[in-house]
Amino acid sequence: MNLYEYQGKKLFEKYGIPTTKGILIDKTVENDYVYLNQLNLNFPVVLKSQVKVGGRGKAGGIKVAHNKDEFIKYLKQLFNLTIKGVKVNKILIDEHVDIEKEFYLSFIIDRSKNQIVFIFSPLGGVDIEEVAQNEPDKISKLFFDYEVFDFQIRDSILRVYGKRLDVVKQIEAIALRLLNLFRENDCILAEINPLVLTKDGKVLALDSKIIIDDNSEIVDQYEEDDEEISEIEREAKIKNLAYVELDGDIGIIGNGAGLVMTTMDLVSLYKGKAANFLDVGGGARADKVKESIELVLKNPKVKALFINIFGGITRCDEVAKGIIQAFEQKKYSLPLVIRLEGTNKEEGREILNKLKELNNNVFFVDTAEEGANKVVSLLN
Ligand code: GDP
Ligand code: MN
Question: In 3D, which of 167, 170, 191, 168 has the Cα closest to residue 179?
C-alpha cells in the first residue's frame, strides 16, 4: 500500500524526522469561504495535490501561493486537476521553504538480493532513475541485511557529498530515523525526495513516499484512515459488518456474499440500482440483523429495502426477531420486501406477522426473483 504524502509526513514526525508542517483540506471545503478565510496561513504557502502518483511537480500539481487571492485561485485549479488519471480530492497546504539544495534519500527492499538498500544522492528533486542514467557516480548505494552501523551510512553519504559536515551529520541522523520507520512499519520503500537543505542551514523532508507491504497488518490502520471510504463504511468496519456503499437507491441485505451478489444482479436485471452490499454472514443473530438494517438505512439515498435470506446455519426466526427489533425502535416507513427461506422459516414468518403493524409498506415474497421485481416496481 502506497501512502499519501501527508500520511508519510505524519510518520516522519512520529520518528523525529524534521519535515514541513501542513494543513490537509478536502474538496468539500472548496466553496466554503468562511472556513478558508479562517485558516491561519503564513504566506507564501505551497499547495500540494495529494495523489498517490509521482511527478506532481511536473504535472502542475504543486503551486506556491503568495497571498489569499492566489491561494483561492490555485485551490480551485488543483481541485479540478487530474494527474495521471487520478483526481485531486485532497490538498496539503504546506509551509514554504527557501531551498539551498535538494538531496535524494531512501531505503528500499531489494527483492533479488533479499536485502535492504540505502540510496543517497546529492542530486535530489528530480527522478532518481534519470540520475542513475546520466550521472551514476552521483548515487551511493549500500546493501545490508537488517542491521547497519552509523559509520556505514555516513561513509555512504560522504562518498557522493562531502562539502559540509554539519549537513552530513543532519542527513545521517535523518537516515537512521528513516531506517527505524522503515523497519517498524513493514516498508518496501521509504523515500524522501527532495530532502532539502534550507537557506538557514537546516535539513528537512519536503516530500514523502512510503510503500507498506500489503501483507502487513499495518495497512489495516490506513484503510480506516483512508478518506475515500464513507462514514457508514467506517462505522461498518468498526462493527465488523461486510458493507460496501454503492450509488443506487435500493438497500440490500442478505446472508452469504454469493447470495448478496446474486440479489444485486437480480435487482439490476429488473432495472433497479443497489445502494449497497451487506452480508450479515452465516449464523447471524437478531442483534446483528438489527444493526445491519440500521446501518443500511443510515444512507439517505436508500428509498426501499430488500432483505433476502436463505437460512442454513442462519435461522429465519433469529433474522425475523432482528427485523422486528429494528422497526420497533425506529419507525422506518420506507417500502420493504422480505424473502425468508430455509431453517425455521415458519417460525420466522410467524414473528414477522407483527411487522405489518410497524410498517404498512411491507411485502413478503417466496423467491429472490420475485423480491427483486417487487422492490424495483415499488420505486417506479
Ligand atoms: P513530486 O513532484 O510529486 O515528487 O512532488 P515534491 O513534493 O517532490 O515537489 C516537487 C518539487 O517542488 C520539489 O522538488 C521542489 O523543488 C518544489 N517544492 C515543493 N515544496 C516546496 C517548497 O516549500 N519550497 C520551494 N521553493 N519549492 C518546493
Ligand atoms: Mn518528490
Answer: 191
Ligand that lies nearest to the alpha carbon of residue 124, given by its number in the listed order: 1
Q: Which residues contact 72 (CB under 8 A, 6 or more apart)?
A: 36
Query: What's the pTM value of the predicted model, to 2 decimals?
Result: 0.66
- Look at residue 3 and tell me if it is in a domain: no
Q: What's the CA gap between 326 and 336, in Å, rounded? A: 13
**Each residue of 110-166: pLDDT tens digit?**
988 999 999 999 999 988 989 999 999 999 999 999 999 999 999 999 999 999 999
- 30 as an active site residue: the answer is no
- Is 74 a domain residue? yes
Give the total number of structural domains in the chain.
3
Tell me whether residue 191 is one of the annotated catalytic residues: yes
Ligand 1 nearest atom to the CA of residue 98, by list position: 26
Which pLDDT does position 225 carry in this prediction? 59
State which of 53, 206, 209, 210 you would mutate to test the pocket of ligand 1, scoring each by most atoms of that ligand within 8 A of its C-beta: 206
Q: Tell whether the model's pLDDT for residue 89 goes beyond 60.
A: yes
